[in-house]
Design a protein that fits this description.
The chain is α/β, with parallel strands linked by helices and 236 residues long. The chain is 51% helix and 11% strand. It has 2 domains: 141 residues, HAD superfamily/HAD-like (Rossmann fold, 3-Layer(aba) Sandwich); 82 residues, Four Helix Bundle (Hemerythrin (Met), subunit A) (Up-down Bundle).
Length: 236
């Protein structure tokens, strides 16, 4: 299938890098930090207990699901308070978390493919997560980063896709959203009027019978190759 793509919006977690190793690193880094700075907190909330507290904070605060940073701070604040620690530790504890959160390991294909894609069309990051592209070191490859926290709603809310298109200055139908999540990324974007590209690294089944992805690849390289071929065919 060939169609014009004038800009791309791109998911981050589990599209450019796997999140599971990041999550495991965060858990250990925070525990080690608490051992050093607040042993009582580390004792009351070892890794498993801190994870359970974080999951409960998520369940109990659906109004903050678009703001994972706020939810993380709530978790840390509760752990510090209940363990009798000083709340002066909240900001440095959060910084320890955030430094670990931005230590990513790209999928083997992702960075080279991203550079190829960004050289061809403007790319905007649209994510429900809280990664910092500048800290990660790839900010120069993106026109901008729009997170659910900044926008005030998370994918698949159509508004976040529309806001990205507006900032790009490109009609919805000429923007291709690329991501790993069938609902939040692909179906959400397509319902919002964008094109949808599913990066399906794990060979999941597509379950949305009412629509089909415009494109599907098992690596980001597949999309970079398609963009090259699509551009060549349109120039003929």
């Amino acid at each position: 299938m060939n169609f014009p793509v004038l800009a791309i919006t791109l998911d981050l977690d589990d599209t450019l890098w796997p999140f599971a190793p990041i999550g495991a690193r965060i858990d250990q880094v925070l525990h080690d930090w608490m051992l050093q700075h607040s042993p009582a907190t580390a004792s009351m909330y070892p890794v498993t207990a801190m994870r359970e507290l974080r999951e409960r904070s998520f369940r109990d605060n659906p109004h903050l699901h678009y703001d994972l940073s706020a939810l993380r701070r709530l978790t840390l604040a509760e752990a510090l308070e209940k363990s009798g620690a000083s709340m002066d530790l909240l900001d440095p504890a959060y910084e320890a978390f955030y430094a670990a959160r931005n230590q990513v390991e790209f999928y083997p294909d992702a960075l080279a493919a991203l550079r190829r894609i960004a050289a061809r069309v403007p790319v905007a990051a649209v994510s429900n997560g809280n990664a910092d592209l500048q800290r990660i070191g790839i900010g120069e490859l993106f026109a901008f980063q729009l997170g659910s926290r900044e926008f005030g709603a998370a994918k698949p809310d159509p508004g976040i896709f529309h806001a990205a298109c507006e900032r790009l200055g490109v009609e919805h139908a000429h923007v291709l959203h690329v991501g790993d999540h069938a609902e939040m990324d692909v179906a959400g974007a397509m319902r919002a009027g964008l094109r949808g590209c599913w990066i399906n690294r794990e060979e999941h089944s597509w379950t949305h019978t009412e629509l089909q992805p415009d494109l599907q690849f098992d690596t980001l390289t597949g999309l970079a190759d398609w963009l090259d071929a699509n551009a060549s065919s349109q120039q003929r």
